[in-house]
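Record type: monomer structure entry
Structure origin: computed from sequence
Chain ID: A
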Amino acid sequence: MIQLPAGTRIWIAAGVTDMRRGFQGLSAQVQTVLGEQPYSGHVFVFRGRRGDIVKLLWFDGDGLCLFQKRLERGRFIWPQAESGTVSLSRAQLSMLLEGIDWRRPERTWTPPAAV
């Protein structure tokens, strides 16, 4: 996982994105569709139509970084909205990248009472 500076926001672009897009295409989408600045230092997450590929666009202070991940099995959990953005925490981003349902994580074990 990349180390994000404090105050970095993580934005999911709702809906589907053409995964053939690169730096320029995704930067343009951040500006026109999401209304944000690609050089703000925030992380922008995009998902393709099939749902097995995500791309992350992030400006680290020196230049734009483009990360891509493809799941061999399963799909990335995505919001139902067709447009707009959803803000995630770092923990939710980590779960999303692992293919875990980040919307409602459930504990598999609860500790017994101490008394």
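Annotation 1: The mean pLDDT is 87.
Annotation 2: The chain is about 15% helix and 25% strand.
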